Amino acid sequence: xxxxxQHIAIIMDGNGRWxxxxxxxxARGHEEGGRSVQRxxxxxxxxxxxxxxxxxxxxxxxxxxxxxxxxxxxxxxxxLKERTxxxxxxxVRLHAIxxxxxxxxHCRKQxxxxxxxxKDNDGLNLVLALxxxxxxxxxxxxxxxxxxxxAGTLQPQDITPETIGAHLYTAGMPDPDLLIRTSxxxxxxxxxxxxxxxxxxxxxxxxxxxxxxxxxxxxxxxxAKRERRYGKR
Length: 233
Ligand code: IPE
Ligand code: IPE
Ligand code: MG
Hints:
This protein has a six-stranded parallel sheet with strand order 3-4-2-1-5-6, with helices on both faces. The relative contact order is 0.19. Strand 3, helix 4 and strand 4 form a beta-alpha-beta unit. The model has no long low-confidence stretch (mean pLDDT 97). It is α/β, with parallel strands linked by helices. The protein has seven helices and six strands, in the order βααβαβαβααββα. Bound molecules: 3-methylbut-3-enyl trihydrogen diphosphate (IPE) (2 copies) and magnesium ion (MG). Residues 11-13, 55-58, 61, 185, 187, 189 line the site of one 3-methylbut-3-enyl trihydrogen diphosphate.
C-alpha cells in the first residue's frame, strides 16, 4: 500500500547555480524554475496530493540585487497571468502566505485576482510563500495575541498551540507531511518553522530547474518508507 502525503512543502532552491553551470543569467534560472513549478503541480494532481506549498520568495530574498528581485517579481506576475486559466481547468485553488503587502502593486493585484478567480476550486491547493519568513510570521501572531490579552479579550492561560496555529498565515491549512529541499542544502532557511514540527524531511542534490518526475517520485517513495511515530511507541 502506498502512502501519499496530503501536503508537500518545497524549498525550491538552486536556480542560480543551475544558471551559473550553464553560463547564463540567474534570471534565466528562475524562469526555468517556473517550469519546474508547473511540473510539480501536475505531479501532485496525478498522485492525489491535496496541498502543495512552495517557497517562492523569502523575506531575506529582498536583500538580493534590485535586478534579481525585479526579475523574480516580473516572473511571478507573468506566471500567475499565464497559469490562472490552467488552474481553473485543473480545479486548483491558489493561496498565498507571507508579508504580501511588501510585494509590488502589480504583483499584489494579479495575486488577488488569481486567488479570487480560483477561490471555489476544491481540487489541489497551491500555496505560494511570498515575502515569507517564519520568524516574521510567528512574531506577527505573538503580537496579535498580546494585543488581545491587553484588550482583555483573551486570557494567557487560553493560549494553546491551536490558538497560535490559528494566528499564522497558514491558519486552517494542514501541516506539511513532507518537506523537500532541492540543491542539497541541509537547512530550513526560515521556512514554516512551526508547521514542519513533524514533517518528514527530504533533501535532494538535484537543482530546482532539473526537478521532475523522477525526483518527485523518488521523494514519494522515500516518504512511503518512513515510519512516522510522533514521539509515540
Ligand atoms: C531559489 O534559487 C529561488 C529563490 C530563492 C527565489 P536560488 O536563487 O536561491 O539559487 P541558488 O541557491 O543561488 O543556486
Ligand atoms: C530559500 O532559498 C528561499 C527560497 C527558496 C525562496 P535561499 O537560497 O534564499 O536560502 P539560503 O540563502 O540558501 O539559506
Ligand atoms: Mg538558494
